[in-house]
Amino acid sequence: MAETKPDRFFNGFALRALYGGWRPCRTLVFAAFIFMLLVLPPVSEVRGEDAAVPGIMAVYGDTRGNPDIHRKVVEGILKFNPRVVFHVGDLVRKGAGQKEWANFKEIIAPLTDKAEFFPVRGNHDAGSSHYFDTFTLPGNEKWYSVERHGVQFVLLDTNSRLSPGSEQYRWLEAELRRFSRKDKFVAVVLHHSPFSTGIFSDEKGLQKKIVPLFEKYAVDIVFSGHHHFYERLRVHDVTYIVTGGGGDPLHFQLRYSPDSAVFMNVHHFCIFNVSGNELVLAAYDVDLNPIDQHRIRKRK
Question: pTM of the entire structure?
Fold first, then answer.
């Protein structure tokens, strides 16, 4: 993952060549350093159209509470010029409010002008047709899958039935079985978090119904929201990212769990991409300060 500040080839090795005295073994190093300084462009941050890096993706969610913070989150995401953006739900406060959807579309327009945008429904988005009027999505638009930049994404609707035997459950297992035959990362995106240490209790229903499928078919990472903070957990070799810091009032940590590695109650977003056999993820607050960095090796 690229750093958030420019880095220009001044490292300790090159400086030692400059100030350590002229020795025969250092002449070549110095010449190479001068070449890099005068000829090669600086290593820059992944920002703006001129610094686009293929395969950069973003994920965030729970934007219903504060349009001003949502705008700052969008501005931060745009600094990394992602090709694909995922939203983990609760896009608006009231799903039946048509004006809220119009405001949401206006805020994300700079993103959708440059990137694909794939949301899932949160509990605040359900109850009207505005969600489906706003987006044109694959499949039945409630749950669907896409493959982008070395990752197979499965996007679920936790407002619809997910119990064994239900239509969505059968579809989910078929997709995970199909993806397990491919040498790609598998990511699940849904609104309600199966695991967290926040003010809401764990989703015992999801743990019982679909988490066994995540473990059986070697899902690599699960992105969720509903809780308004950032948290990274690892349960039975599956990484869970709670990224509900897109604008809603923040929640606090309520309890301890040995599965929780990082917890930050800040507004934020996540940037990630695939590099070789690793999925590289970083989370940033709205001032572009990194709050977490993590690498995940492909599960077998």
Answer: 0.81
